Amino acid sequence: MAVNPQLLRPIDLASYGPVIPVIVLERVEDALPLARALYAGGVQVLEVTLRTPAALPAIAQIARELPEVIVGAGTVLNAADAGRAREAGARFVVSPGYHRELAQACRALGLPLLPGVATASEVMAALADGFTFLKLFPADAIGGLGLLKAWRSPFQHVYFCPTGGITSATAPQYLALPNVRCVGGSWLAPAPSIQAGDWVRITQLAREAQALRPA
């Protein structure tokens, strides 16, 4: 599915599959083989977290060499992070929490933002600023399934991408909820497989993730 980056909305990310991989890269040289392995398994949207020095150059490589992949930056904490991510070629950014200044900076950059929330007050703040697709983080630690069920009534027009502690076993439970459009998961790109260059294993994990359906 081809998407014009100028028209990409955060909710569009969910249309590519049920799981967005949350990626931590220690080595830039792993970026392209990892992205190719995930793409071979049907995963087209990648979130590379800004937790290591390798992240921004990795995003740049993927954006340049694999334009068919929609690469974004995760763990974006402020406007400076957003600007660096945009310069590297990120098509979207993800934040662990909600902050109006970050939202305004992303809008000024023309960069779609998937903001994180953990409380009803944060949902209300994001909703007031026009965001209706949010990342619930850290989902498992804050009782994600029960919380999302409770929020369905007061926030009927808000949808979520739960992330944090979700596994291939629990993902279908989240995906079965009417206010969940996709989930974020680190299990698609496990560190031991990346370190070993086991790209076949990662492609298999991607295929399994793409096949996930509600329980």
From TrEMBL:
**InterPro entries according to UniProt:** Aldlse_KDPG_KHG, Aldolase_TIM, KDPG/KHG_AS_1, KDPG/KHG_AS_2
Pfam name, any one? Aldolase
In the Enzyme Commission scheme, what number(s) does this protein have? 4.1.2.14
Q: Which CDD domains does the UniProt entry name for this protein?
A: KDPG_aldolase
What pathway annotation does it carry?
Carbohydrate acid metabolism; 2-dehydro-3-deoxy-D-gluconate degradation; D-glyceraldehyde 3-phosphate and pyruvate from 2-dehydro-3-deoxy-D-gluconate: step 2/2
Which protein is depicted?
2-dehydro-3-deoxy-phosphogluconate aldolase
Fetch the SUPFAM superfamilies from UniProt.
Aldolase
On subunit structure and binding partners, the annotation says: Homotrimer.
Q: Which family does it belong to?
A: Belongs to the KHG/KDPG aldolase family.
Key word Transcription regulation present:
no
Q: Which organism is it from?
A: Extensimonas vulgaris
Q: Which UniProt keywords apply?
A: Carbohydrate metabolism, Lyase, Schiff base
Catalytic activity reported? 2-dehydro-3-deoxy-6-phospho-D-gluconate = D-glyceraldehyde 3-phosphate + pyruvate
Going by the entry's taxonomy, the superkingdom of the source organism is recorded as Bacteria
Spell out the molecular function terms from Gene Ontology.
2-dehydro-3-deoxy-phosphogluconate aldolase activity
Phylogenetic lineage: Bacteria, Pseudomonadati, Pseudomonadota, Betaproteobacteria, Burkholderiales
